[in-house]
């Protein structure tokens, strides 16, 4: 948060958004929590905190760049970061974007479970597919970052077994204790709640691409509750999105 103390425009936007979220949803300041809290587990697992702070930070960063005369020619957001990209591009107004930040966080908090976790693996995907994938029943791909980096979700026992095999084979990995499993079948539980929404959106003033399905938002593909569900449920195609850009 060094930008918060160094850049007036960044701080002004952060304070404005923090006050808005405080008054409309939480009754307390998430920014104060960020400045005072020294609990990485809390930061990683509380979706209200992570969703709100990421949205505030990303929008404030855009505001800072805009103040300096830098405006993007296109935008793309990953996972919950898509909400800020939709606001920045004009697809969502601020109130709707804030509503979705809160709702998405609530839905993901409701899927918190102790039976599973996520793991980042740093090897060629073909190596994993050929050597390890047929050993497990619950592992699902949640993020495809590059040909040599991807994230899986699954049950604890299978993740632990995979970690042991990767360690024995000298393959780098990173275990993620995030409290839930993102972008996989665990999020099927959110479907009915999401699809019951009636989300209104606009056409973008800045081109915006979704890494949930590699589609640009336009007259033929508008943001709505169906896309929000795809954003929650689908794997993130990061490498493929960069290639499409």
Automatic annotation (TrEMBL):
Domain Malonyl-CoA:ACP transacylase (MAT): 1-245
Stored InterPro entries: Ac_transferase_dom_sf, Acyl_transferase_dom, Acyl_Trfase/lysoPLipase, Polyketide_Synthase
Annotated Pfam families: Acyl_transf_1
Gene Ontology terms for molecular function: transferase activity
Keywords in alphabetical order: Phosphopantetheine, Phosphoprotein, Transferase
Protein's name according to its UniProt entry: Malonyl-CoA:ACP transacylase (MAT) domain-containing protein
């Amino acid at each position: 948060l060094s930008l918060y103390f160094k850049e007036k425009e960044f701080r002004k936007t952060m304070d404005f958004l923090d006050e808005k979220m405080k008054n409309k949803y939480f009754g307390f300041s998430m920014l104060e929590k960020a400045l005072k809290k020294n609990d990485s587990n809390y930061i990683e697992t509380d979706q209200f905190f992570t969703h709100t702070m990421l949205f505030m930070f990303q929008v404030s960063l855009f505001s800072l760049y805009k103040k300096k005369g830098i405006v993007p020619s296109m935008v793309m957001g990953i996972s919950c970061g898509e909400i800020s990209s939709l606001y920045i591009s004009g697809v969502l107004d601020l109130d709707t974007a804030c509503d979705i930040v809160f709702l998405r966080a609530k839905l993901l908090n409701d899927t918190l479970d102790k039976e599973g976790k996520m793991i980042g693996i740093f090897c060629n995907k073909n190596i994993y597919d050929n050597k390890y994938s047929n050993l497990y029943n619950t592992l699902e791909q949640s993020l495809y970052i590059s040909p040599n980096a991807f994230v899986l979700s699954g049950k604890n026992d299978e993740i632990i077994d995979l970690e042991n095999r990767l360690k024995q084979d000298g393959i780098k990995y990173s275990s993620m204790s995030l409290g839930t499993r993102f972008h996989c079948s665990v999020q099927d539980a959110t479907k009915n709640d999401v699809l019951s929404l009636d989300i209104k959106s606009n056409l973008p003033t800045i081109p915006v691409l979704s890494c949930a399905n590699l589609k640009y938002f336009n007259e033929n593909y508008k943001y709505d509750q169906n896309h929000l569900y795809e954003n929650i449920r689908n794997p993130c195609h990061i490498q493929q999105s960069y290639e499409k850009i």
